Amino acid sequence: MPRVTQQEWQSIAAALDALPDPTAELVRSRIRDSATASRPVTCPLLDRDSGTCLIYEARPVACRAYGFYAERQYVLGCSRIESMAQEFPPVIWGNHAALEEDLRRLGAEATLFEWLSRRLCT
């Protein structure tokens, strides 16, 4: 489960609130269950029937970067991608460490479960 920033959680929470009530409650229940589930877990935001994200427009950065969210030395790509990564080092080409560092600058981060718990307690 990726950790998400407070700004990301605010978007996710608003997207959850916009879902039909039964769907939103199912997702919140999945988020709660994910805190104690054995790993790996299926993303609680996934529509398991269609295989799509229930909150696609509000999905976290980790999901938006999926496919390139890996350490640079483990990027599995064609030689063109590899040469571009060497030519343009500041560009994030599968460099999760740089992406996570940029996200840390946005402020507090926590798991979906932690954000949901905080929201329910306020």
How far is the first residue's CA from the last residue's CA? 23 Å
Query: Could you report the average pLDDT, rounded to the nearest whole number?
Result: 78
| Quaternary | single chain
Coarse structural class: mainly alpha
**Poorly predicted tracts of residues:** 68-72
In N-to-C order, the SSE pattern is EHHEEHHHEH
Alpha carbon gyration radius: 16 Å
Written account of the structure:
With 122 residues, the chain is mostly helical. The chain has one domain (4-121). It is 48% helix and 7% strand. The chain has six helices and four strands; from the N terminus they run βααββαααβα. The protein has helices at residues 6-18, 21-34, 61-64, 79-87, 96-104, 112-121, and strands at 4-5, 46-47, 52-53, 109-110. The strands form two sheets. A two-stranded antiparallel sheet has the order 1-4. A two-stranded antiparallel sheet has the order 2-3. The radius of gyration is 16 Å and the shape is globular.
Summarize the structure.
The protein has 122 residues and is mainly alpha-helical. The chain has six helices and four strands. It is 48% helix and 7% strand.
Question: Which characteristics define this entry?
Answer:
122 residues; mainly alpha; 48% helix
Topology of helices and strands:
Elements: E1 4-5, H1 6-18, H2 21-34, E2 46-47, E3 52-53, H3 61-64, H4 79-87, H5 96-104, E4 109-110, H6 112-121
Antiparallel strand pairs: 1-4, 2-3
